[in-house]
Amino acid sequence: MPHGETPGTDRKDRKDPTEEAERTVAVLRRAAATDPDRHLPELAYALLSLGSLLAGDPDRHEESIGVLGEAARVFRGRAEDASDAPLVGLAVALHRQALSLGVVGRREEARAVALEAVGLWRTITERRIEGSRGELAAALVNLGNQLAETGHHHEALDRITEAVEIRRSLVDPASGAGRGELASALGDLGIKLGEMGRQSEALDALRAAVGTYRESEAAARSRPGGTRDTGELAEHAAVAFAAARTLTGLGHTGEARPYFAEVAALRAEIAAREPRATAFLDHLLAGHGYGITREGGVERDGADPLDGVDALGEVDRLNARGLALADSGRVDLAAEILAEAAALGRAAAAERTTGSVVALARTLHNLGLVRAWAGRRAEALEAADEAVHLCRRGLVAAPDTVRPLLAEAVDSLGSRLAVLGRHRDAVAPATEAVALYRQLAHTDPGAYEGELARALNNLGIRLTDSDRHVEALAVTEQAVELQRRLYRRDPETHLPGLVHALSNLGLRLARVERSEDVAGPTAEAVGLLRFLDRVHPSNDVAALAESLAWLAWYLKKRGHREAARETARAAEELRRRAPKPGR
Known about the structure:
Strands 1-2 form a two-stranded antiparallel sheet. The termini are far apart. Helices cover about 75% and strands about 0% of the residues. By secondary structure, the chain is mostly helical. It is globular.
């Protein structure tokens, strides 16, 4: 007989805790309606308990949001007396509600609620209430996740870094208590750094997280009958997997192998204790193209990519197919094909031949572009960064082959950094791209002047985003001059480039307060748009539409009403035609 059961009690007769909590809440709601002073405090805690139970059911997250919101309203009414208990209850309710809002994708709401929860926990911590610093750390990590999901990556990093320092200060050096929580926060920090493309820093944090999990395991095993729960084992495995993938992405496949082995060993331990608990880890592995072998190891799905094929020929074929799919607008499928090409190219590049390294660099460059078109910004930066690294490695051995690819790759790297808000970091690769394209255009103007014009336009944007407006204007004027010359030679090919350059020139002129000069290039860009028949995924139509919308506002403000109306109409038409990610 299982421990805790009474004789004659069948399992099916045991009461469901959620149903019990729902009944309790219903009774207390009725009681509070007649005697609020007496029953509202009890109702608040009952709502908090029910909301937490509902949040644990994947099908009832929306219900949990409403119930936790009701709990927060009751606690908020009672918190006006400045006593500790209602304030703590309100902070707990908001924190849990923010978690559920994030799970269902309501990120903006989640961010606002998480921000309030952090503020309350700061107040509670100042009152030195026991356990409050740990709760503040958890709330900071949640806020960091919601900030990152809404594009505020640097703020997210600040909040998670603060959480790590709090968790570090809470570790008991004698017993080791608190190490698991510190490891979890370090893992969140490493993953967030990786999403921002800061792979080396991410790796440092992930290694520290894994090391801390190992210390937590050793401390647990030193106690009689001591083991970690399957939840911590799964978190440990997830962080070890992130470290292995980061090492692989940086080309350190040998260093990644022990981490993959650690993931496999942790999964085996989870499976032995609670087989269903492996579902989370298996889903995580599958999402990144990995699976469990028959022997229990972790490896990329599919057969050895080098078996029975000409590896570099297959890489070329997959690149061509992926780019063709992207050209037709099927960018998500294109990204899958190019990821397959990258895996094949990585295996071939293990031989360290110049041809295989260049093939991998080209594939990663293409993969970065297509991921960017699909809106997968952090992954796009990861691929672009590795492509640049490989190009630099191959430049000495094959300068004529690699220099054009390096120029493309550093230009793309600048764009990827800028999209993630790292504007000052983006200036250096954008400047390098212009210098490389100048060299190439000097020897072969027909092949590279168009690329030089595009790189100049991009550098102008990077300089503007770094508040270097006079330099940005000078560079953009060069881009427009070159684009005009190219457009006269081949209007169909160079129309999009000229339109972008002209709209950017309007923006640059506005920035330096040459307001009377703004209308000319803006009107020219709008006039040319009527000849733009087809929108390619690489043509950042959404950004162009935003630029024109801003210029329309600016022109109207400065009294150019007719030009403003034409520009606003053009912006709206572009928004309608902009390709959607994944289409």
